Amino acid sequence: MDSTAPSHPDPHSLSLKVMRISQPLLAIRAPLPTTSSSALNELLTFDPILAQTHLPQEFGTIYVGQTFSTYICINNDSKDNVDGIIVSAELQDSLTKVLLLDTEKSFQLQGGASKEQIVSHEISEAGPHVLSVTLTYQTPISNDQSRHRSFRKLYKFSTKPSLNVRSKSLRYPLSDELKILVVTQIINVTDDAINLYDVLFIPTESWTTQDLNCDANGKKLMEVVLPGDIIQYMFLLRGGSGQGRLELGKIGIGWRGPMGERGRLSSMMISAHLE
């Protein structure tokens, strides 16, 4: 996590702490109790779950479709009250800039006090991102005068693609009713195994959908997909009409990472060309 802030000859009364809120990560190895005279005590207090997990020290890996959540803490490092505090946070990628936080109304912090905020945003683009946090406040010059001060911190991180979705549509032959079979392949391009817990077809208004991805009891299948693996889903569409290019709908995908972190994606519009 990279951050930059402009320098000022006088130290600021306020400081910022920014951390990403995320699930713990699996540790590379689990430390075992050492062999010593206190081995029994170590065995009694050894927690295998905590030993195999650790908290991320930086923003870590973020995939498209996941929700990026950030903890922002404003600290008053002085002994005096600070007035007129305004905080704003923006997240920018190569295409868009999104305002995540704007306190609008100013607030006061007593000496030694702090104020916390949590902001969230669903990641929709892969590539470089910049989280910009700006803090503005007033410091007294005399009994009836004050001056505005501000500083900004930039936190740079990158996001990665999560799933590739490829779909094709086929018209059912030898049928009086218009039926279209949609075949979708989902490729796991992350570095981890993921659980596809919700894959559905979201049709346009003129179509109804039959999910062909259930077992004999009609229960929806949940799949674990390893990195680089491909899994296929099929949906049968009925009820539409027309010729030429017809818009059918989109694929909606819900998935979980190794520690239960959720992600959600929607495919591009799927269409069929009928003559």
Automatic annotation (TrEMBL):
Ranges annotated as spanning the membrane: none
All residue ranges annotated as the Trafficking protein particle complex subunit 13 middle domain in the record: 178-270
Name assigned to this protein: Putative trafficking protein particle complex subunit 13
Highest taxon, organism lineage: Eukaryota
Annotated GO CC locations: TRAPPIII protein complex
Pfam families tied to this protein: TRAPPC13_M (PF23647), TRAPPC13_N (PF06159)
InterPro entries, A to Z: TRAPPC13 (IPR010378), TRAPPC13_M (IPR055429), TRAPPC13_N (IPR055427)
Domain Trafficking protein particle complex subunit 13 N-terminal positions: 12-158
Species assigned in the record: Neolecta irregularis (strain DAH-3)
